[in-house]
Write a structure and sequence with these properties.
39% helix; six-stranded mixed beta sheet; five-stranded mixed beta sheet; D-Maltodextrin-Binding Protein, domain 2; 19 helices; alpha+beta; globular; 18 strands; 447 residues
Length: 447
């Protein structure tokens, strides 16, 4: 079932609400409905949502339990994590997926209402923070974060993208509360506001920045990976549900691991499946979820991700969105460890794939990878009408971006791509003789 909701702001989320009763105890031979809240268009949660649903792995795992129950999965689709948390603490959603900052609000809300939840696995992550991006209009004259002083910036308060905005402004010497005018808007509303010129910039999570850039409706101003702080998405479950139905939660996590392996093994097909289910362009999905995409998918709860979550608490506290949060008690990896068995340790230590330039040929079921952006450009120059999409990693952060949307720098024989003008300028400042070139000139130089 797909349910359209009006997402609550993080501030509203933390106000009291009356909770309805939770899942009923299931007797032998009864039907157990498992309600899963997910965000179809937050594509770094697809292994616990969109892709998992399309593959049917969770239902197959439940059918293999043979415990005398009949299981039914109720999939509920939301735009952000806030309404999922509201439904979880009302006892109406059993398992949900969301970004790191919403996960903390999920923990705080559950504790506040005496309905604790736990982080039980990770979905997609980027160890440098590249999942969030600040973008401006294509014709904007803004070139760096410092230009945002006194400007209007749209974001979703309490989201991971809001956390990126706050931290980025602070590093640029701008007071996040007074130095810029921050508007709390849903991603789609903010995207429309940017196009209409009613805001100067938009700070959002996947897949909005990549989508707007792909559509020619925005350009990157700030790459979240410049913070060099992990951003991730994860799966949260109600404590009472997990205690009553541990086998069901383990079945979900086994299915999530299967979906993760499918995505990693068949990245193009997986992108097509997610695109079909969400209406997003497959080229945008692949930017984030591809073989060398911005996101790495792994259900293991690594110490790096837990540490990042602990650092996020101070941002939410300073925004008065929550008080202290006991991250250690919120993180519960016992279920995913049991579900994955001996493979868990291997997953925990598996590094992200190395950055690479990649071309998706038209009509192709596989992509082509290149060791250098210049090699990719040479291919593009010779096949300009036969390419569906081309991706290059930022020369500094490794964040993947569309080749034709990148800022290109020529340094001798080298051709270097950057996500933002500011990053390119930093390189130029440190490397005398280097200069920016247009995408067209970059293609000519490579050929």
């Amino acid at each position: 079932m797909k349910r359209t909701t009006v997402a609550l702001s993080a501030a509203t989320l933390l106000l009291p609400l009356s909770a309805c009763g939770g899942s009923a105890e299931a007797g032998s031979g009864s039907t157990v409905t498992v309600t899963v809240g997910y965000q179809s268009k937050t594509i770094n949660t697809v292994t616990a949502g969109t892709l998992l649903r399309s593959l049917g792995y969770f239902e197959k795992q439940l059918n293999s339990l043979h415990d005398g129950h009949t299981y039914k999965v109720d999939w509920q689709d939301y735009a952000t994590g806030a309404p999922i948390t509201a439904q979880m603490t009302a006892g109406k959603i059993d398992i949900g997926s969301m970004g790191d900052f919403p996960l903390l609000l999920n923990a705080a809300r559950g504790k506040q209402l005496g309905r604790p939840t736990h982080l039980v696995s990770a979905t997609g992550y980027n160890l440098r923070g590249g999942l969030n991006t600040i973008v401006t209009a294509p014709d904007s004259t803004l070139t760096s974060l410092k230009d945002l002083k006194g400007k209007k910036v749209s974001t979703s308060v309490g989201s991971a993208a809001d956390g990126t905005l706050v931290r980025a402004l602070q590093r640029a010497g701008i007071d996040p509360d007074k130095g810029a005018s921050k508007l709390n808007q849903q991603p789609a509303v903010g995207a429309s506001a940017l196009s209409a010129g009613s805001v100067d910039a938009l700070s959002q999570f996947v897949a909005w920045p990549g989508l707007l850039a792909f559509q020619g409706k925005a350009k990157a101003l700030y790459d979240g990976a410049q913070l060099n702080l992990p951003t991730f998405h994860g799966v949260t479950a109600r404590e009472d549900f997990a205690r009553r139905h541990p086998a069901v939660l383990e079945a979900f996590l086994k299915a999530q691991a299967q979906a993760t392996d499918y995505l990693n093994g068949h990245p193009v097909t997986a992108a097509e499946k997610v695109a079909e289910a969400t209406g997003l362009p497959a080229e945008v999905v692949y930017l984030y979820n591809g073989a060398h995409g911005i996101a790495t998918f792994n259900p293991a709860l690594s110490p790096q991700l837990v540490s990042a979550l602990e650092q996020d608490v101070s941002v939410l506290k300073s925004a008065k969105l929550t008080g202290d949060i006991d991250v250690d008690s919120f993180v519960d990896d016992q279920y995913v460890k049991k579900a994955l068995g001996t493979s868990y340790t291997k997953r925990l230590t598996t590094p992200p794939p190395p950055a690479a330039s990649e071309v998706w040929p038209k009509g192709g079921e596989k992509t082509l990878s290149y060791k250098s952006p210049k090699q990719l450009l040479a291919y593009l120059a010779a096949h300009q009408d036969g390419v569906r999409a081309a991706y290059v990693p930022d020369a500094t952060t490794g964040t993947l971006w569309f080749a034709d949307k990148a800022v290109w720098v020529a340094d001798g024989d080298r051709l270097l791509p950057f996500v933002t003008p500011a990053a390119a300028q930093d390189y130029l400042t440190a490397h005398g003789g280097a200069r920016t070139v247009s995408y067209r000139e970059a293609l000519e130089r490579a050929s």
